[in-house]
Fold:
Amino acid sequence: MSFPRHIRKVFLAIEQAEGAGARVRRSIGTPALRNFSPFLMLDHFSIKPGAGFPDHPHRGQETITYLLQGGVDHEDFAGNSGTIGPGDLQFMTAGKGIMHAEMPRQNPDGSANVGLQLWVDLPKDLKSCEPRYRDLRAAEIPTVDVDDNKVHIKVISGQSHGIDSVKDLAYTPVWILDVTIQPGGKVEQPLPAKWNAFAYVLEGNVKFSNGEEEAKTVEQYNNVVFGPEGDGINASVDASATAPARFVLIAGTPLDQEIVQYGPFVVNSKEEVYKALMDYQTHSNGFERADGWQSEIGKSMVH
Structure:
């Protein structure tokens, strides 16, 4: 690769409580990295049985949930419901308004349900679109192996080494690649020009080239934010490493618009925040079906 992107910053995602009894490591949506357009939030969540995200509203964004282990049930006020399992993704477009619940499976061994949830901003002209869901099953995700099979890439969204993902999952163009590198492996991954990009390390230690400077070793649970200039990223794992490393590489087209977020509502002005709250409280302009609605799955929460 002629010119790898420069690393803007590297920081650890600190674990915190969220929802009802869930634990999350939030990297985007914290003082360390706010509104890295089009990305609003990235949570690496761990939800034990008895915890979860009972009934709550959204407006103005898309959420992408990638389950790494366990299972999560979802249900919304439009009658949509289902379950995603290990390696599955759910793309949810809140649009003008949705109310839903996301609850973990009760795993027989009591283990946690672990995954990533990414919030992506919607372009201004799509903020009031109809809500929708798309599930992407693990078996549908194309993969590619490079560097003598020392690198395995799941092409969730976007393209890598001539392999294209399943199309039309999110309204805002986003690439998501899940990359596992064995000790001694290396990969060059091009990215669309000027898109904002970051990598989040799920396991092990990854070396990322840093433009013309010395490569940077990034440890588990750290987020690596890349500068906008350059052709892509170079990543490797030392041959002396005792275990493989795994990271997600995510890139998206920056949106030229104001971001005003109030909890689960992501709009473009303060006036629109008041309107979202009013619409939600009066069950209007997208929240009509929230009137009196209660999810079945949310009732499992212990009060």
